[in-house]
Amino acid sequence: MLYPENTRQLEAIIQKARETKTPLVAVSSRGPHLHGASENPNAETVDFSRMNRIIKIDRRSRYVRVEPGVTFDMLIPEVRAAGMRLNIPFLPRAGKSVVASALEREAVLIPKYQYDYTDPLLTVEAVFGTGDAFRTGSAAGPGTPAETRADMVVPWGPGCIDYLRFFSGAQGTMGFVTWATLKTEVLPALTKLYFVQAESAEKLTRLASILLKRRIPDECVILSRADFAGAFAVSAEEEEKLLKALEPWTMICRVSGFDRYPEERVSIYEGYLKDECAQAGLEAVTELGGLPGLAEKVEAMLGECDRRETYWKMRRGGVRQIDMLAPPSRAPRLIEILENLRCPGDFGITVQPQVQGRAFRIECSVYFSGAPEEAGQVDKALEDAARELYEAGAYFDRPYGSLSKLAYAADPVSTEAMRKLKKIFDPDNILNPGKLCF
């Protein structure tokens, strides 16, 4: 296990690995590791836990710059104290690296302020497999980051190449990131939470598309009954009560007002939300049955990480996941395929609109005891489902494990181009070999 504390030490580690032909894999989050991208039995682990500085929080320009060892439980309170909020995934693990989450393009809760699938990631400093450090976008240029006069928030370039995409979704195969700049949003002065329940996910995905076209909600997420109960219950008894009380699908959305006329703004958004729900034959409510104080609990947990002793997706002992992007027109069919999934254990589905509603991130989590034989059965069931999902229009932009074979076989031309780039930026193939198409 190697523990770099700065960029220079990481450069030395990679240069030494090139000389000795030692494969390396990066890890920056605390366990459990759900996807396996940071686990490689054939490589030595580079642990970034000691690179955990919050370098800068800038409310005026609305960004933070942090090292990869900074986790959600560390950063969220600091950003909130500065009057801002992060655009984070739904209930991320407390020990999850903020930088790793952004690099993996995990779905964010506020699609209204997401303008590209790499958002909220802006610029990064990384070390390639050659041992050379490199900064992307407006962070590139002569001198150290402290000396540059740029604000380091423009992600494109340098030049006409979008280098940021080399690292985004690459699972540490192109370079190891040493710090990243991430976009933040101003903390609202007033919010109001609403729930919309339905028998089918299709009604809610259609509603979410309409709402986001009009830029009405901030946070917006659609949960199956199993995922809603698992996320917000603190015990098996509470989970059972929610499973009995909830409709099959629930959309959580929150409207916000800011420093200027917050009450008026929230009132206008409420009117829009209720009008669209009425036209869809649905109802937006501020309370749900099943547990006392449920709405207050959900309100408090949105925009937070899961600080409970056991991460909510690991409560049964083990979890396997498959996720994909889909255009709004195809999302209902993909959800239907997942609803008919046949595998051991229970499963839940989370659907999140992304990039102002232009696509949906659909994630299916299968919960089981964690026994090896059961894990094998779950893996087989998800592999079988992946082919059907692909043929129905799923786009696997985060292909972990065996799913990468299906994703990259679909486009051999792009795959060959990626392999050529890999030879340029990691000529000795020492960075997380065997992952993706490498």
Structural write-up:
The chain is of the alpha+beta class. It has three domains: 7-186, Uridine Diphospho-n-acetylenolpyruvylglucosamine Reductase, domain 3 (2-Layer Sandwich); 190-301, Alpha-Beta Plaits; 312-398, 2-Layer Sandwich (GMP Synthetase, Chain A, domain 3). The protein is 32% helix and 22% strand. The chain contains 13 helices and 15 strands. It has helices spanning 7-20, 72-81, 98-103, 164-167, 201-213, 225-232, 236-245, 262-279, 294-301, 331-339, 372-391, 403-409, 412-425, and strands at 24-27, 44-47, 54-58, 63-66, 84-86, 121-128, 133-135, 175-186, 190-198, 220-224, 249-257, 284-285, 318-326, 346-354, 359-368. The protein has a seven-stranded antiparallel beta sheet with strand order 12-9-11-10-14-15-13. Strands 3, 4, 5, 6, 7 and 8 form a six-stranded antiparallel beta sheet that branches. The chain has a two-stranded parallel sheet with strand order 1-2. Helix 6 (225-232) runs antiparallel to helix 7 (236-245). The longest helix has 20 residues, at 372-391. The two termini are 23 Å apart.
